[in-house]
Amino acid sequence: MKFFENRFTYDYSFPAVSLAYFLRYPNPYSRHVLTTDVIDRYVDPNTQRLHTIRIHLKKSKIPSGILKLLPKGMGGSDNSGQSYILEKTIVDPKEGWMETESRNMEWTGILSVVEKQLYQRLPSGEDRLALDGLAVDKVSEQTTVKTTVTFRSRLGQGKLLGRKKQDTAGDHADAEEEATRKGFFSSLSTAGIQRTIELIGVSRTREAVLKSKEGMNIVLERLRSGGVVGVLEGMRQDREAAFGPDGPWKRVWLQGNSKDRSIENDGK
Amino acid sequence: MAASIAPECNDIKEKYDTCFLKWYSEKYLRGNTSSNDCEELFKNYKGCLNKALKERGIDSMLDDARKSSSSETDAEFLKKS
Fold this sequence. Notes:
The structure holds two protein chains of two kinds.
Chain A: E1 2-10, H1 14-22, E2 33-43, E3 50-59, H2 64-67, E4 82-92, E5 97-104, E6 112-122, H3 126-132, E7 142-152, H4 166-181, H5 184-187, H6 190-243, H7 249-252
Antiparallel strand pairs in A: 1-7, 2-3, 3-4, 4-5, 5-6, 6-7
Chain B: H1 10-26, H2 39-55, H3 58-67, H4 70-80
Helix pairs in contact in B: 1-2
């Protein structure tokens, strides 16, 4: 198992940051995100916290560095370049925090990536308030975010590939079984392969976390200058720039032509 | 607004998303947490989406993923190692 941790402070209030989180796609740094849907959403009647479950479809493929470590026939055949991400969030507006968790739904046996974030309202310092007198400057409000990403490869551990698309799951399991019989995993240390795969995940995540921060900042800036309407207008332009006026769905189901444009990305 | 995985649900999704953003920013974040302005729209959107997910075989994958909460996975992992 490997971990990646990052802390960051946004110069925006907690309500703005939490709104931006739900509104963050599309933005100029999220061209790899094809679709977003809300699977479930409710306010817990006891805690008044808002629970949301979303599913994102992203362009991503298994990094070539990982593909090289897999037995032939595994990973390569059905690498459609798209993957589903499940995202759960809980917002507590009274206490000023939001918890998020995103995980890949496929290839979890090769590499399971779970990203957790905790957004928290940063109490605007009382000293500063006193110094400023009647400080009503909302700009001074800040929100911190702690990001933790966990990487776990179970390759060669019998857990196999987790779940890929139903119709192909059998093939992949067979491929790994066969590879095991042929001594593929015994010729290389299983732990070594797992460690290598996890490290590739970590290195790709550094860049992905940075990009997602940039994306959030753009959405936040649009919120500040134009409110929700400003964000929506920006989105419309991003969407056209990324996919053309027809929207992304034409591409979603047209597989095989995404090779040149695939962004090798986070898988989160 | 982000597109839906099911093109046929895009219109209703956009209506729901717009409703949610308004409710979230104007009511929920300001303390009016018990209101449910968008319930009807969400029901319609969900109806459209669930059908699409089923047709594409994503629904069962989703059920599996939702079941595996992180604590379960950790426990399972610790047992194995």
